[in-house]
Design brief:
The protein contains 17 helices and no strands. By secondary structure, it is mainly α. The model has no long low-confidence stretch (mean pLDDT 90).
Length: 459
């Protein structure tokens, strides 16, 4: 049996049959995401050797760069839902067309994403940051700009191969990227082997190099692999098709949800910068730790999109229900374990990013130690909302979840963070409690939404 045939849904009504199926798809996705986060970890560790100020500026620039990418990636998320439904229904022609139109959409999204990045570069000097921090972050964004087109095209192909239940090629590419990132950073951050010494800005150039490498490899694989060749992904790319608008119809609310979620973290980062370099550096460290632990629930959510989409497209409501519910259970279990780790080994985890024995890093360490217990608190809610969003996307339900994300992240989360962090004077701790409250509200509402949709569809 081929890998694609094995990915086709079958009626399932047991937790113990669906959990291995979900994890079988989610684990390669998670490894790929963790590998991508490992490249961020490599960036932070190498930049951290330049000092806390460099780490703070690098974290600011990287967050802005990722914010631009996540919006485009969100719109492209419609590829996974459309392709998964078509694959579950056995409509391979639509699967092929979805992949082609997804690539066309990735190209079209390059311009607005680049415009947003340039807008961030122009806005930074007017926010109130230290001028040196602004110049460093702007340089990172400048060198990261050429990496936008390949990153979006790679994302389109990643969603395509994942929707067909074959994400391992993405995993292999992501693992390769760790080493390439380290070498590129050595060359351009530190000027190794006579290369230009760009400092923190070298991280942006390294990201662009890695982006082009990732896209080239996955494109070659999709074009040459026997299982993918029949879809003729790169044929007639100049021809428009209404399926592109179906992708956009489903994908733009996903982008909206990403924008609201990442906007919450981005705004928190911007506000944290107003509290000083130590607070911003500590925030960067704890966000990095949370990002690692978040990768498995995020992958479980993507697996839920595929599993629920396959089952729903094939007309198997029982399988769709268990794909969603079991995914939620798995996300909660994992995040409970990582929350415990945050509470048990806080100093050791912070020490992965900075030298905790260096007295100059004392203020950063103190803030990070205060933030980690709060991060442990919202781990469970963060994982739950990610999985619930994935399950709902498998049902092509994206608009109401986007509204829920706006209410939870911004109406509740931002208000709580601003009140606690500034009005009541709790500083970094208050801002992070705002994050926790916003994520908790969003997780509860999205889980309730999936439960209601499951009942309404007689699942």
């Amino acid at each position: 049996m081929s890998a694609e045939a094995a990915a086709r849904p079958q009626a399932r009504s047991s937790w113990f049959t669906e959990a291995p199926a979900n994890l079988g798809l989610a684990l390669p996705i998670a490894i790929a995401f963790i590998a991508q986060m490992a490249t961020v970890f490599v960036d932070n560790v190498m930049v951290g050797r330049l000092g806390a100020a460099a780490l703070a500026a690098g974290g600011l620039g990287a967050n802005l760069l990722f914010a631009c990418l996540w919006i485009g990636m969100g719109v492209l998320g419609g590829i996974a839902a459309v392709a998964a439904h078509a694959f579950g229904a056995g409509d391979l022609d639509k699967v092929s067309t979805t992949a082609r139109q997804g690539l066309r959409l990735a190209l079209a999204l390059t311009l607005p994403c680049a415009g947003l990045l340039i807008g961030f570069m122009l806005l930074l000097p007017h926010i109130g940051y230290d001028p040196a921090t602004v110049r460093t972050a702007q340089a990172l964004l400048f060198w990261g700009l050429p990496g936008l087109p390949p990153a979006l095209a790679f994302t389109a192909l990643r969603y395509f191969v994942t929707a067909l239940g074959r994400p391992r090629v993405v995993t292999a590419i992501a693992l390769l990227s760790i080493g390439v990132t380290a070498i590129s950073n050595y060359l351009f951050v530190f000027g190794g082997f006579g290369a230009p010494n760009l400092g923190v800005a070298g991280v942006g150039l390294s990201g662009s190099i890695v982006g082009w490498l990732e896209f080239t490899i996955v494109a070659a694989y999709v074009g040459l692999d026997r299982g993918f060749r029949r879809y003729r992904v790169f044929a007639n790319l100049g021809r428009a098709n209404p399926i592109l608008w179906e992708i956009v119809h489903i994908g733009w609310p996903i982008a909206g949800a990403y924008m609201f979620e990442n906007g919450l973290f981005l705004l928190t980062t911007l506000l944290m910068g107003l509290l000083g370099s130590a607070a911003l550096a500590a925030h960067t460290v704890v966000i990095g730790l949370c990002s690692f632990s978040f990768m498995l629930p995020y992958a479980i959510g993507q697996a839920a999109t595929v599993r629920v989409g396959h089952a729903f497209g094939a007309g198997e409501p029982v399988a769709a229900r268990w794909s969603g519910y079991v995914a939620l259970h798995l996300g909660v279990i994992w995040m409970s374990l990582t929350a415990a780790l945050f509470l048990i080994l806080p100093r050791g985890l912070v020490g992965l990013y900075i030298d905790i024995a260096d007295p100059l890093n004392g203020p950063t360490l103190a803030v990070a130690m205060a933030l980690l217990p709060i991060a442990a608190l919202f781990q469970i809610f963060d994982g739950t909302q990610a999985v619930a969003l994935g399950a709902l996307r498998g049902l092509k339900d994206t608009r109401i979840p986007m509204v829920i994300c706006f209410l939870g992240y911004w109406v509740i989360g931002v208000s709580a963070g601003a009140a606690l962090g500034f009005a009541l004077g709790y500083g970094p701790v208050g801002l992070w409690f705002g994050l926790a409250i916003g994520l908790a509200a969003t997780a509860c509402l999205l889980t309730w939404r999936f439960h209601r949709r499951a009942r309404r569809l007689n699942l």
